[in-house]
Specification:
alpha/beta, Rossmann fold, 6-stranded parallel β-sheet
Amino acid sequence: MRSAGLPVRYLINDHPSSVARLRSLGYDVDIVDLIAGDGWEGRWLDEHPDTRVWINDRLHTDADHARRVKAAGRRLATFDDRGDGAALADLHVAALSFEDGDRLQGQVVLQGVDYLLLDAGLAALRRERGRADRILLTMGGADTWGITPRVMQALLDRRREATVVLGPAFAHHDAVDAVLMQAPAGLFTIHRNGVPSLTEEMARHDLAITAGGMTPFEANAVGLPCIVIASEGFEVPVGRALERLGGCIFAGYHAEADMTVLDRDLPLSSMSRAAMKAVDLKGCSRVMAALVAVSKEQA
């Protein structure tokens, strides 16, 4: 949006590392209580009259919130939203919706991998993989359920080397350190508080172990096969869809993930080719066109 000359402002809860990261990238950021039900949305919009489109990236937008945005005369867009408020959205981008029974709500719904927001620059990092010599483990910015140390233990049991990326909101360092105390020197390379570029880290590896969000799609876009572990229930159909697309193996929901997948001789070459075929890099331009169209409509 910035490259298209459109001003962007973030509304975010008081999460210091995320706020600092956004501001370091030059974005305007307002810290708000996102779940307060006191009509703060209308007051904020009164103070920012030039705002034309309110964009939510929240799993469950409630109807009261959506009504307050709409009552202020603004257009409402939402991403992968399972809340009641999605029904009031002018645009609903549901790139991570794959189940046939999904009941997606919104005036205009864009569904499926064609609308994945991936950086077109990933094309320069594409390459076919062959052997799983370099494994990358990354379970997102927070890894709420502490999946990372459990996977590290499974890798340790098999003496498999791996690079481990811990996100800025990761809170299970003690469990990670407990695994490291058992591990031979050099078995794990640990990056705490993230890495400068996860995509460049992906480019250096042959197999990734990830959660079921955007990361495996980014990985597949550069030809990196993945083992996917669902950290939340809504990631289960995503993991299944990724396996059907051919670039991933779905190991299941985190509570009962099957780590014997690490013992399998995975067909990485065919997985890598399938991954690059399934995930193109035009989704961002498609979504931008839809957002611009919404911004031009009369509320």
